[in-house]
Amino acid sequence: MYNLIVDSGNTTIKMFLFVDGEIAQKMVCDELPELLPTLKANVSLDKIDRCIVSSVSISQSEIAEVLRPFFPVLEFSPRLNLPIIIKYGTPETLGSDRVAAVVGAVSRYPDRNVLVIDSGTAI
Asked: What is the 8-class DSSP label of residue 87?
């Protein structure tokens, strides 16, 4: 199974290709117009089974629109069925990068207390 994760932060767009649950390739570009050429230069698009997109800068819908002709794309959101309970007063204003980091930690360390520190470009 080939899964693609696209994470658009404040400075770069990172793409991670997972093959059978393991990171097989990491790709980086600076702007949305570079996304598809960068991806095509590194992987055959017909191998990708599905994709999830998270963004704190570019509209997730814009990114998904570029990729949807090639494979199914899910836009990450706190409204998805997640393995966490979000008690934040306004979850729609909580950065998807922060939610994804917590989901990743909980998935990686189930049934344990975890502390997630997400500083992004602030570091």
From this structure: -
